[in-house]
Amino acid sequence: MQLKPGQLPQHLKKQGLAPVYCLSGDEPLQMLETADLIRATTREHGFEERNVLVVEKEFEWSRLQQATANLSLFSSRRLIELRLGSQKPGREGGTALVEFTRTLDTDTVLLITAAKLDKQAQQSAWFKALDAVGVSIQIWPVEATALPGWVISRGRQYGMTISQEAAEFIAQRAEGNLLAARQELEKLRLLIDKAEIGIGDILNSVTDSSRYDVFAMLEAAMTGQAERCLRMLRGLRQEGTEPLGIHAALLWQMRLLIQVAAEQEGGMSRSQAFIKYRIWQQRQQAVTTVLDRLGAGRLIRMLAEAHQMERVMKGAIRDDPWNLLENFMLRIAGLRLKSLLRAL
User: Fold this and answer.
1) Among the four 92, 96, 190, 343, which has the fewest Cβ within 10 Å?
2) Is the confidence at residue 209, as pLDDT, over 80?
């Protein structure tokens, strides 16, 4: 029987444990949580023994039969985990798996985890045998367009109501990595002591409750207040704020500005674009000022540069991330290269 990850909790509740579970895919968080749910359910049903078999190049498949046959002094019910990873069972392994399905034991549950299975593997005799007696779950990465929805849903599990704008920011910062998105949500739960989370809360939390506000710094840059922006950025540095967090907020703001500019070029009025992208009145003047000063083409070029800066932020290229941030923020504020050189 083939299920989606989201269908498993209800299936376990209604149907109970199956003798075999085969999880395959390359998305680590969903793989981990799906496997953890099966492990927790087996414990609830008295499966106290757990035997883990890691399949490597010279794996002896007789160990699977031995794990099934050996009786424990402490428990009569066992969970056997067979971790295939990227290995293929081959002829010997395929025979062992098919044989396992022919000698099912109500006191044994087999949990198989594997990397993404190709079409050939899914049409093999061993996979069909496992699927016929148990549950197979193929786990796919969450599409980029669906990630904000995933963030909102996961936030509810943590007791938080996350706005669409805040969810989009977290999704962009996580870059499709669900583990990173979950970590962001867990940090928010610790840093923000309220249930409803908006984009302002997210941007403020980037500074780890610093005196200086990342969002206010970005607004100072957009409105051309170069000196104030620079002072706030240096204050964030003195307070120990990570440059990567500031850079993430900067990327989010740049993308938002480009989206508004693109809508205008497509014929939408600026006020309509503000409504569409939920830019509230208190922020509209700053956005208007920077759009009029830089224009869509320059913003797009600057966004490409900001993405290159990310490699410095993550340590892939050796450079001073704070100098890069200062120069970039001053350019947003309207200072040209000659002014920057004089300032240096």
Assistant:
1) 190
2) no
| 281-332 residue pLDDT tens | 778 899 999 999 999 999 999 999 998 898 888 888 888 999 999 999 999 9
The CATH T-level fold of domain 145-343 is Zinc Finger, Delta Prime; domain 3 (1.20.272)
Q: Do residues 120 and 7 make contact, with C-beta atoms less than 8 angstroms apart?
A: no
Q: Measure CA 48 to chain center.
A: 32
- Distance from the Cα of residue 194 to its chain's centroid: 23
Domains of the chain by residue range: 2-139, 145-343
**CATH number assigned to the domain covering 2-139:** 3.40.50.300
What is the per-residue burial (b if ≥16 Cβ within 10 Å, else e) of 21-43? bbbbbebebbbeebbeebbebbe
Question: Mean of the pLDDT values across residues 241-255?
Answer: 88
